[in-house]
Hints:
Low-confidence stretches of chain B: none
Number of strands of chain B: 0
Structural class of chain A: alpha/beta
Shape of chain A: globular
Structural class of chain B: mainly alpha
Strand order of the largest sheet of chain A: 6-7-8-3-9-10
Order of helices and strands of chain B: HHHHHHHH
Strand content of chain B: under 5%
Number of domains of chain B: 1
Oligomer: heterodimer
Largest interface: A-B, 24 and 15 residues
CATH architecture of the domain at 1-86 and 195-271 in chain A: 3-Layer(aba) Sandwich
Low-confidence stretches of chain A: none
Shape of chain B: elongated
Strand content of chain A: 15-25%
Amino acid sequence: MGENSxxxxxxxxxxxxRGHRAIFDGLNLTIRRGEITxxxxxxGTGKTTLLRLITRQLxxxxxxxxxxxxxxxxxxxxxxxxxxxxFGMLFQNGALLTDLSVFENVAFPLRxxxxxxxxxxxxxVLTKLHAVGLRGAADMLPxxxxxxxxxxVALARAMVMDPEILIYDEPFVGLDPISLGVIVRLVxxxxxxxxxxxxxxxxxxxxxxxxxxxxxxxxxxxVAASGxxxxxxxxxSELVRQFxxxxxxxxxxxxxxxxxxxxxLLGRDTE
Amino acid sequence: xxxxxxxxRNNFVEFLRTFGxxxxxxxxxxxxxxxxxxxxxxLVIKQVHNAGAQSLVIIMVCGLxxxxxxxxxxYSNMSKFNAEDWTGVAAAFALVKELGPVMTxxxxxxxxxxxxxxxxxxxKATDQLSAMEMMAVNPVRRVLVPRFLGGxxxxxxxxxxxxxxxxxxxxxxxxxxFQVDVGSFWQQIQLTVEISDVNEGIxxxxxxxxxxxxxxxxxxxxxxxxxxxxxxxTTRTVVITAITVLVFDFMITAAMI
Lengths: 271, 257
């Protein structure tokens, strides 16, 4: 496995359940080196769970995940941390350390993993903050930031160690149109300029389609469709069409399973 | 009946599992402690300051009043036997051997312990611990061990402050209010309270410091990552620490008599 150097991450026959509910049931997926890969799918399909499995924050019940040819389930803690230094991850809510300033949040990985001088750390951190437009917020605390600003600081922190793989969990949620445009362009620019591989989980079909090289649509624990954004947009599958065009009717029900509406309103379901 | 037996068995197995995990967690903290003490002392000092400063005012106020109450009780009873000079001795024994360490641990659990649990719990709920994991930083080492050590180091000092302020409270009541001779008050204490009594207090405060800090960080680290979960965890910290401290207090006292 992993002999193909084009493939950076390979997921094979992955099974993962939470309680009795199967999140993934034999998932196969390949993420190519140097590309921006989008993971899409209806709510509850396990996109964030998949990111956590790829970074071994969770362990699959069956199957394997290979990063650069290495089965990550075989790594001991030291090896796992060495591997994680190759990753940068942007969490959905930013996950900034609330007792540290914006500057110290971005400097955190550098202080933990390097012996760089304070002068050099300051230089690197200000450069990264400048890239996300928040150099002026360096002395602020996370509590003083808006949700969008916090996510941009988290992005600066995720890229401060110059990772090989950048993982974005819902990076576009809650951003104003200006920040959204900046972040979308930043995802593309970072990927191309630094030669990294990016994995983006997003519901925002329009935005993600402008930057992704390849997209995977997850449904029922498997890959329902994959291809370039254009290929997905023109796909014949009902599920893909429903998701890509945001239609209420289709294979994915909008309503959670419930008794009949009329019966419930009239109280007949309790009789 | 069969269902009750099954539930009891399941609860017992769950208790054993949790207790085993708790012990492993304690060993993990101990394993990382020497490295943190030698290489990241700054983090520990910050936490000693946090835990100590958070609890200091409450410790001092409570110490003063506990000492004063002890002197009141001691004086009212001793005076029946014309033994008012022994008021200070009664207060000193109670403070140094029992109330100093025990009350400090209980107050620590209510103030610093709950703060530790909720801080760690919220860090978990807001993915801060996961973010550290993703940055290849071990959160047990970076977050939990310094907080654990901070509590362990702060507790004996807080207990000493509690006892010292308590003795001042006893002095105020005994000497200033009831006019016990100041020389007799302190001389009786000096003659009666031995170093072994002080040592007992120190041993208790160290044990309680380990227990209170360990329970606080354990509950925080194992919080269900929701607002409700953090609330439950902080409550459990206070309740479990209080019970543990009182049980250990009995055991240590019984062992040292």
